[in-house]
Amino acid sequence: MTTRAAVFDVDGTLADTNHLHVTAWWEAFRQAGHDVPMHAIHRSIGLGSHDLIARLLGEDRDKDQDDALSNAHRTLYGTYFDRLPAFRDAGRLLRTLAAGGWTVVLATSAGGGELSALRRAIEADDAISATASADDVARGKPAPEPVRQALELAGARAEDSVFVGDTVWDMQAGTRAGVTCVGLLCGGIPRADLTEAGAAVIHDDPADLLAHLDDGPLRGSSS
Questions:
Q1: Edge-to-edge strands, sheet with 5-8
Q2: pLDDT by residue (tens digit) across 51-107?
Q3: Rounded CA gap, 197 and 110, in Å?
Q4: Is 67 in a helix, a strand, or coil?
Q5: Is the pTM of this model over 0.90?
Q6: pLDDT at position 1, please?
Q7: CA nearest neighbour of 156 among 120, 203, 107
C-alpha cells in the first residue's frame, strides 16, 4: 500500500494568525528601537525567527539582539493563545483527508505552547499523524528540510505527497522537497507570488480546498 502524505503548514494556512504574528513582531521591533513597516513583516511571516530578523534588519544588524527580539515576539504572541482562530473547515479538511487514506502531517515553525494552542484551535488531533517542527531540523523554510522531515515521519515519498501552505517560503520549501504544492490565499500573499514560487494549484482557504478536493492533487485515497 502506498502511503500518501498531506503535509500542512499551520499559521496562515489552517489558522488565521498571520496578522497576529505581524502585530507581535512589529511591537517587538518597536520596543527594541527598530522602525519596521508592517507590510515588510507580513512578507516575511513563515520564516524562522532568526531568518525573519535577518531579512528585516539586514546582516549588519547587532546579532546579539536576535534572541531578545525573538523572545519578545514569543511573549507578545503568547497573549493570543487562548483565542487563536482556525479558518473555517480547517479541522474538517484534515479529518476528511485522514478518512480518505491520507497521512496528515503538520510542518510548522511553531512549537511548545504555541503549537498546542494552534492544535486546540484546529480541533483535528484525531486526524494528525505527526508534526515536524522547527526544532526538528537544522534549517527552516524556504529550505526543504521541514517538508522532508514531515515526509519521513509519514513514511511517504515526495512524489506521492502534497504540501499545502500560504507563503512563498512554503511553496519554495515544498518545491525543493519535490512534492506537489497547493497554495492558499488566506494568508494574504498574492496568487501570482505563490504561483511563481511553485504552487501547482491555488485555493482561497481550507473551506475552498475542501469543496474542491476531487478536482486537485488531494483527490482520492491511498491504494
A1: 128-133, 103-108, 5-8, 162-165, 180-184, 201-203
A2: 999 999 999 999 999 999 999 999 999 999 999 999 999 999 999 999 999 999 999
A3: 22
A4: helix
A5: yes
A6: 82
A7: 107
